[in-house]
Automatic annotation (TrEMBL):
Protein name (database record): DUF1508 domain-containing protein
Keywords: Membrane, Transmembrane, Transmembrane helix
Domain spans labelled DUF1508: 204-252, 544-587, 717-759, 776-813, 892-938, 955-996
Composition bias, Acidic residues: 350-360
Superkingdom, taxonomy of origin: Archaea
Signal peptide: none
Pfam families noted in UniProt: DUF1508
Membrane-spanning parts: 82-102
The species this protein was found in: Halopiger xanaduensis (strain DSM 18323 / JCM 14033 / SH-6)
UniProt feature coiled coil, ranges: none
Length: 1000
């Protein structure tokens, strides 16, 4: 440490030592170790000898002044001889006493073992530490005794406290480290003068840039609220504090507030809490303040009731649209365009793109699929009259996704799928067991490479196995099936594998004892006829040909009552039947009757018919003449005494009824044989008669021999369709669409043959996912009628990418998919996960972001933040904030002030705390005045700062490091700058080499 200037001058007057260096200029080697010096040690040496001599002299002087005669004469002091002797004795005694005292003290120093001067360095615990070392005094003195060539000398030293540490260390080692750090700072420190408050910009040990606001005396008033990555950001914050702080208002928020501020030439709003922490902000800036206010008001109106949507993978949004949902297309509906053409057409017909605001003026609803980012990934092309209907459709589609198959457009296929109509029928009838093993009715369709349904099943099957067999039959049948056109009606002679003779009974005879009088009994009798190869309606054993008269719509007008051996016999029989039909009269039975008739062989027979025309009895054999037949008949007449006897000598149409009261007809030839029958029964006699008239009117229709399946075109309502008909008359398939001309129909039939030959076969569920594309790919969800339910809004670069998207859709838990709707004038809170964490947006139905989260957090904190926002927003009052503003916040240690920028981010925070909010608020006035006069400088290294608190106060100094930390403070004040400068110079001259002493 330094010494007073007078002492330094004294040391410079001392002679040089052997080495030529003065004692004043010689500096001791820096001692880094700590030496313990006992309190008061340096004051007990030498001074005791002097103190011992002083009393002796004083005593001698007093004594001689009393005993001797002393007077001043003309020649000075005159002594009598006795007095002179006495004074000499006294002086001698005093010198002797002094020598004796010094000798005794020296013995005490040295002891009996020799020189004990070094023992003075040993601790003397009974003495006290000088006050200047303990900080109880600024100045003090010390006498140093030393030996010089056997002689002793002493020196009186002045001790002065120059500086002291402003902070304490918890351990001696920490204090020692700080002393070494201070010594290094003293060596490198510069000097600056601080007369007012100052803002110090520095870089801390972590590399962050910070700043502090301090008074002239070094007391810290405030500091940066956070560290900055670069100096420019810190300097920008300081400029904001300096420029705006002196005029900044105090904004006091009780619970929450909507702040309106202008930033970067744009007006913005924020929702803040009671600590001015931003909770929500507008998504965009606004050119006018009124627009920002309106946006904030919209936020407040909609946030409270907004549903919080946590979409894990997918969500379903119901929205209003302007398109009425089309009803399901009938089986005979028009063919669908290709998948790509249909998609283009759907986009052209839609007046708004997915996601755009739609007016919904027709009151219709649609739904779309959105991902976790609220982006629309698929849209339903259909619309529904009510929102519940749209929700039901979405729910059904999502449920069906769990059991679906993925197909590719452009591949012909037989698709087997469950039939919705069958499900509905079973639901109405309550029959759960008649639909096959899986409980569904099934259909099939043939789809070509353009995605068009070119053929479909005419009826539903009970099991999927039946449908599979039907598709295989179609695949075989269409390859060489000819086109058979029927203008109005035609006879079809066909092979019937189910018809076979059972006995040799006559075709129009029924056993008398059968007791049957139903329509089915008569048909069964007709099936079991014997053959007479004469074309009269019988067949030989093994024949399986029959005929029917059908219209172009496949309505059966009449059918054969017997079967024939081959197509030629059936055709020959038809020639006679056509003639009989033209000539036959219509006979209606009013009572029972015996009928006598001659067959083609010239034999006579009879039969008994009841009033309904049912056969009650028949002759047992053939008779050579009419009379013999009548005689045989009369033997049985007592069974029907009221029956008329009618002789058959010409063809007749007989109208008859059964016990159930339904009517039918049959054609009887001149021999009394039944050659044609009604294909069905009729509710009344008039209806049966009309059926006869229809047969007679179409009896001249052409005859076709059908040996295999045939395509049969038909026109209805100006459009052409076709059927694939089996020889038995069963319709195997119908066209999947209508055609404008017959020529186009025939061209498409060729396509059907090729498609069936190349088609693969698979079973689908209620819905099917289809991949569509070439250069870019999309996916679409089709219902069981191949109508699109959902179409992807995203194009994928490859089929694999589209398939991956479908896989993600299938893997999603559809039970957890939220279904929501954002009504007009409403909004929803959308939670979103980013790389930094979870955030939220408030969106309206058009996906416009009305507000957004200011910061990210984990999911639970984000959800809690939304709850707080929904609670605070309705209570928040609107306030206008400038570029910066003050507020007061409470911390664990008390109340502090803060300065916030226009975005509500803290820029500065007070370092001084108060017990009350009012006191902290009052302190802001002092902060404003300090900022107004504060100078700004950057700490580039340690420096001595010379300062005084005001113009009347003395000067002081402090040593600060490059981080703004005060290492040393002056222990005393100085009247002038120069004195302060000298004290700093003295410190720099001696402190770096000063010995460290531990004072106790």
């Amino acid at each position: 440490m330094s010494v007073p200037r007078s002492v330094r001058r004294y040391r410079r007057r001392e002679p040089s030592d052997a080495g030529g260096t003065t004692a004043a200029s010689a500096k001791p080697t820096r001692v880094s170790s700590v030496q313990h010096v006992p309190a008061g040690q340096r004051f007990n040496r030498g001074t005791r000898a002097v103190l011992g001599l002083g009393p002796s002299l004083l005593y001698g002087g007093l004594a001689t002044g009393t005993l001797g005669q002393m007077q001043w004469g003309e020649r000075g002091l005159e002594l009598s001889p006795g007095a002179a002797v006495a004074i000499g004795i006294v002086l001698f005694a005093g010198v002797g006493a002094a020598v004796l005292s010094l000798t005794r003290r020296n013995r005490q120093f040295e002891g009996t073992d020799g020189d004990r001067l070094e023992s003075e360095t040993e601790p003397e615990t009974e003495t006290e530490t000088p006050p200047v070392l303990t900080g109880d005094a600024i100045e003090g003195a010390q006498v140093a005794l030393r030996s010089d060539d056997g002689d002793w000398r002493w020196r009186v030293l002045r001790r002065e406290a120059l500086a002291e540490s402003p902070a304490r260390a918890s351990t001696r080692s920490t204090a020692t480290d700080r002393i070494e750090r201070t010594r290094d700072a003293i060596d490198a420190a510069g000097l600056r003068e601080v007369t007012d408050a100052a803002v110090r910009v520095y870089r801390d040990e972590d590399g962050s840039w910070r700043w502090t606001l301090g008074r002239a005396d070094g007391s810290r008033v405030g500091s940066a609220a956070e560290g900055y990555d670069d100096r420019e950001a810190a300097e920008a914050a300081v400029r904001l504090v300096k420029d705006c702080g002196p005029e900044a208002d105090v904004v006091d928020v009780e619970e929450g507030a909507i702040t309106i501020a202008k930033r970067r030439d744009r007006w913005q709003w924020q929702l803040v809490d009671d600590e001015r922490t931003p909770l929500a902000a507008g998504a965009d800036g606004y050119e006018r303040r009124t627009d920002a206010v309106a946006a904030a008001d919209t936020f407040v109106d909609r946030i409270a009731d907004a549903r919080v949507l946590d979409v894990d993978a997918f969500g379903v949004e119901l929205y209003e649209s302007g398109t009425v949902a089309p009803g399901p297309k009938p089986e005979s509906g028009p063919d669908r365009e290709s998948e790509l053409d249909q998609e283009s057409k759907s986009n052209q017909e839609s007046e708004t793109e997915p996601g755009e605001e739609e007016n919904g003026e027709n009151g219709t609803w649609a739904w779309r699929l959105v991902d976790e980012d609220s982006d629309i990934i698929a849209d339903a092309p259909s619309a529904f009259e009510t929102r519940p209907a749209a929700e039901d459709a979405a729910t059904a589609a999502l449920a069906a996704l769990e059991d679906t198959v993925v197909t590719d457009a452009g591949e012909p296929a037989f698709e087997r799928y469950p039939d919705a109509a069958g499900d509905a029928d079973r639901s109405r009838t309550g029959d759960d067991d008649g639909a096959g093993s899986d409980g569904d009715a099934w259909r099939w369709r043939l789809v070509d490479d353009a995605g068009r349904t070119v053929a479909r099943a005419p009826d539903a099957a009970s099991t999927v196995d039946e449908v599979e067999r039907a598709t295989e039959l179609i695949r075989e049948a269409v390859s060489d099936a000819p086109v058979l056109e029927i203008d109005e009606a035609a006879y079809e002679a066909y092979s019937d594998p189910d018809s076979a003779p059972e006995d040799n009974r006559v075709g129009d005879r029924t056993e008398a004892d059968s007791g049957g009088n139903s329509r089915n009994d008569e048909s069964d009798a007709a099936e079991g006829t014997t053959a007479v190869a004469d074309g009269t309606g019988t067949e030989t054993a093994g024949a399986r040909w029959r005929w029917r008269l059908v219209t172009a719509d496949r309505d059966v007008v009449a059918e054969s009552a017997a079967s024939y051996s081959d197509a030629a016999d059936a055709t020959t029989a038809l020639e006679r039947i056509r003639e009989d039909a033209r000539e036959a009269d219509v006979v209606a039975f009013k009572t029972a009757a015996f009928r006598v008739y001659e067959n083609d062989d010239g034999d006579w027979r009879w039969r008994l018919l009841d009033e309904g025309g049912a056969v009650l009895g028949d002759s047992d054999g053939e008779h050579d003449s009419r009379n013999e037949a009548i005689e045989a008949m009369l033997t049985l007449k007592e069974r029907a005494p009221d029956a008329d006897v009618v002789e058959i000598d010409a063809p007749e149409f007989e109208l008859f009824t059964d016990e159930d009261g339904v009517w039918a007809w049959r054609l009887i030839d001149a021999a009394g044989r039944r050659v044609a029958t009604a294909p069905t029964t009729y509710a009344s006699r008039a209806a049966a008669r009309a059926a006869v008239d229809r047969f007679r009117g179409q009896s001249d229709s052409p005859v076709h021999a059908v040996e295999g399946a045939t395509f049969q075109p038909a026109v209805a309502d100006g459009a052409w369709r076709w059927r694939l008909v089996h020889p038995t008359g069963e319709t195997l398939a119908v066209s999947g669409s209508e055609y404008p001309t017959r020529d186009e129909l025939e061209d498409r039939i060729d396509d059907v043959r090729e498609t069936a030959a190349a088609a693969r076969s698979y079973t689908t569920g209620a819905v099917t996912v289809q991949l569509v594309g070439s250069e870019t790919w999309r996916w679409r969800l089709l219902d069981r009628d191949r109508e699109p339910i959902l179409e992807s809004a995203t194009a994928y670069s490859s089929r694999a990418a589209a398939r991956d998207a479908v896989d993600e859709l299938e893997k999603a838990s559809m039970s957890a998919v939220p279904i929501f709707a954002i009504d007009a004038g409403a909004a929803a809170v959308w939670l979103e996960q980013t790389d930094e964490g979870w955030r939220w947006d408030l969106i309206d139905r058009g996906r416009e972001v009305l507000a957004t989260a200011v910061e990210t957090a984990d999911k639970s904190d984000t959800t809690a933040a939304v709850d707080d926002i929904q609670r605070l927003a309705p209570l928040a009052e609107r306030i206008d904030v400038a570029e910066a503003s003050f507020d007061v916040v409470e911390r664990d240690d008390g109340w502090r002030w803060r300065l916030l920028d226009g975005d509500g981010h803290p820029v500065a925070i007070g370092d001084e705390t108060t017990e009350t909010k009012a006191a902290a608020r009052d302190g802001i006035d002092d902060v404003r005045s300090l900022l107004e006069s504060a100078s700004v400088f950057e700490l580039e290294g340690p420096a001595f700062e010379r300062y005084r608190t005001n113009g009347d106060e003395p000067w002081q100094w402090r040593l600060v490091d490059e981080n703004g930390e005060t290492l040393l403070e002056s222990a005393q004040a100085y009247e002038t700058r120069e004195a302060t400068q000298e004290a700093i110079a003295a410190l720099q001259s001696h402190a770096t080499d000063g010995k460290v002493t531990v004072a106790e």
